[in-house]
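Following up on my earlier thread - several people asked me to post the actual chain instead of describing it. Fair enough. Here it is, all 462 residues.
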Amino acid sequence: MTPAALLIALTLLSVAAFWVGKSRSLAIVGGSRGVRNLHSLPSHYGLMTALWCALPAFAVIGAWLVFQDSIIVSLVTQHLPEGVRNLPPNDLSLVLNDVHNVVAGNVSADMASEPVRLAANEYLRLRGISRMALTVLVLVMAIGAALLVRSKITPELRARNKVERVIEWLLIGCSTIAVFTTIGIVASVAFEALRFFAKVPVFDFLFGTQWSPQMAIRADQVGSSGAFGAVPLFAGTLLISLIAMVIAVPIGLFSAIYLAEYAHPRFRTWAKPLLEILAGVPTVVYGFFAALTIGPALRGWGESIGLNVASESALAAGLVMGIMIIPFVSSLADDMISAVPQSLRDGAYALGATRSETIKQVVMRAALPGIVGGVLLAVSRAIGETMIVVMAAGLAANLTANPLEAVTTVTVQIVTLLVGDQEFDSPKTLAAFALGLVLFLVTLALNVLALHIVRKYREQYE
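Reply from S.P.:
Thanks for posting it. Predicted structure:
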């Protein structure tokens, strides 16, 4: 039985175990009329039976699949001819890779050599044995555990406590995985960034004004300056993000005010989902829109009034990015405005304030911390955007404040540095990790600042 089929079978067994445990708990108290004699609800007994049926079996499946391939490869290697088995490690790994390709069907067995074909057949045989053993073991464990728990069900059994304890440990495990995943990502980026800073001084990277990460492969190679001053990248990122926020914040905020305070409920029911559709448009579509529509339109407009607008300008990327962020700002601001207690509005109306005065003097001040936090989160979203600036802003690392010129951003350079076959020992490739670390620290600081503002001032109006 394949792992997927085994998981489906185990899921069905768990469902059956739930009904077995629930039915058993009802049977020992004489049916639904005796539920009061049970310590826990019948569903808790069913959940306890299902959990004991599924969790140990799932753990065995996970551990088995982790070690199965390495064990099978080790056994297959022992069946290879002595001349192949004694090859250097790199050559042997190539042979085993051919075996995997034949097993996966990527390469026809007729095209493979005789040792590879025999090894592939042996691999398939051992995998079939492994799957059969796993199927028998898992099914026996699941059924046995379900029957064992069923036999121990009594009216005094604290099933609810046991189920809640298991669920608590599952939640702890999930949160631990999330935390360690984050730590692993940060550690991997930081480690590669430290390797970069060992070759390029931190001061030159953070405050240098020349960005040309082309490193010479040969001594006579031309056009390789190896300059890693990231100030033009930071300036381009801030310029495009500033343009985006100038577009997104007023439009998003004013639309949120109208939808929350002025719009008829019937209009709001269909206007807000239509506005939030913008958040579901893929960023690559925005990139096409910026490159094929906004960019040429801005260039034509500039020529008509005598301005020189680059084909890939910061203004084009910023405008489209601002359109993309509008629903983000609008949704957060709408939630903050709607969360303001109605009693504050009623108090302002009782004092003679008009609707506009109430919104300006009461509602917006009460919702301001949440709105500011949402705007900061939107800024971090703009700083981390990739596809739009890749397609619309260009690759030129220009240190300029003119939005009509082409600039580049941190995310564009990360993509550029890691595209193609690259050596991870060169400063050119390692520079991408240094840029990623700076980008991570900036967005983290913005998120922490947003949460701090929301938490610090929220209680003033509750």
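The chain has three domains: 3-157, 162-199, 227-461. That should answer part of your original question.
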